Amino acid sequence: MDRLPEDLVNALHRARRIMALTGAGISAESGMPTFREAQTGLWARFQPEELATPEAFERHPRRVWEWYAWRRSLAAQARPNVGHRTLVGLADRVPDFTLVTQNVDNLHQRAGSREVVELHGNILRTRCSQDGGPVTEWADGGTLPPLCPRCGAPLRPDVVWFGEALPADAVAHAWRAAEAAELCLVVGTSALVHPAASLPLVTREHGGLVVEVNPEPTPLTPQAAWSLRGRAGDVLPRLLAAAWPD
Ligand code: OAD
Predict the structure, then answer these.
(1) Nearest in space to 171 (alpha carbons), one of 120, 205, 108, 106
(2) Which residues are within 8 A (CB) of 187 and not within 5 positions of it... i.e. 6 or more apart?
(3) Measured in angstroms, how far is the CA atom of residue 108 from the centroid of ligand 1?
(4) Could you tell me the distance, in angstroms and rounded to a whole number, from the CA of residue 133 to the centre of ligand 1?
(5) How far apart, in whole angstroms, are the C-alpha atoms of residue 21 and residue 40?
(6) Is the distance from CB of 122 to CB of 104 less than 8 angstroms?
(7) Does the global pTM surpass 0.70?
(8) For the chain, does the N or the C end have fewer beta carbons within 10 angstroms?
(9) From the CB of 154, is ligand 1 less than 6 Å away?
């Protein structure tokens, strides 16, 4: 990506209400594997339905639990990168800023973002597979997955699996932000998984502008007013510095 379009820089600086929608690409520079990239993506190595569905958990609960334990350890070792941090800086400059993420890695929160709308849950949280209630402590050393201390059902990560509903409050919050946004900044998502991928279209339908940051084109690209080809860690700091040069 060469020069930033001046009208984009002006639109960013002027916008009072911005929504950012992030996906796995923003954490790629922290060493977290994305999902769909040909060589390195998680789904290149594993079939999603073997690991990220309620059926997989019923059939192979230990395998699914251990796969998420591995991803949790990757997330714990990873550090937030300049892309995550730039969104914290943007939130400080925009009167009404909402960060919506599909990521479960907690890196936005560790970078300092507050009130992150988590559409797909958070890998650090655990809940009861029976009643869905949060569980923070359990007996270690027994079976895997560990069992709910309240009812004895297996515990599961508090993430959304394929075929499951998204958390209703997060979806409602994200929808309101998308409708109100003058500008929707879409960073590091293949824009293939709905309803998350619909959010920028909602902004567009309500008269807002869509800005995409991604090294590759996506199905969203034709809908974007600007599609910036580059890595989040390069493009986002340049955008912020151009819009707020002080
Ligand atoms: P994907 O793996 O589908 O897409 C990652 C996107 O990030 C791709 O479009 C890459 O081109 C882009 N990308 C890679 N490196 C980047 C970088 N440094 N800067 C910016 N962009 C970069 O991941 P998601 O779109 O997040 O859901 O996937 C959406 C959902 O599908 C996930 O939340 C997950 C998955 O299945 C569930 O598990 C429910």
Answers:
(1) 120
(2) 20, 21, 22, 23, 25, 26, 83, 87, 212, 213, 214, 232, 236
(3) 15
(4) 28
(5) 22
(6) yes
(7) yes
(8) C
(9) no
Class of 33-77+121-159 in CATH: alpha beta
Ligand 1 atom nearest to 83, measured from its CA:
19
Q: Which amino acid is at 179?
A: E
Q: Is the CB of 36 under 6 A from ligand 1?
A: yes
Determine the pLDDT at residue 141: 78
pLDDT tens, position by position, 200-228: 999 999 999 999 999 999 999 999 999 99
**Calpha distance 102→121 (Å, rounded):** 8
> Going by CA atoms, what residue is nearest to atom 36 of ligand 1?
35
Give the pLDDT of residue 1.
63
Residue 72: CB atoms within 10 Å: 17
What are the structural domain ranges in the chain?
Answer: 1-31+80-120+166-246, 33-77+121-159
Fold topology of 1-31+80-120+166-246: Rossmann fold (3.40.50)
Tracing tokens 């700091």 back to the chain, one arrives at 237
Judge whether residue 38 has pLDDT over 80. Answer: no
- At residue 120, φ and ψ (nearest 5 deg) are -115, 20
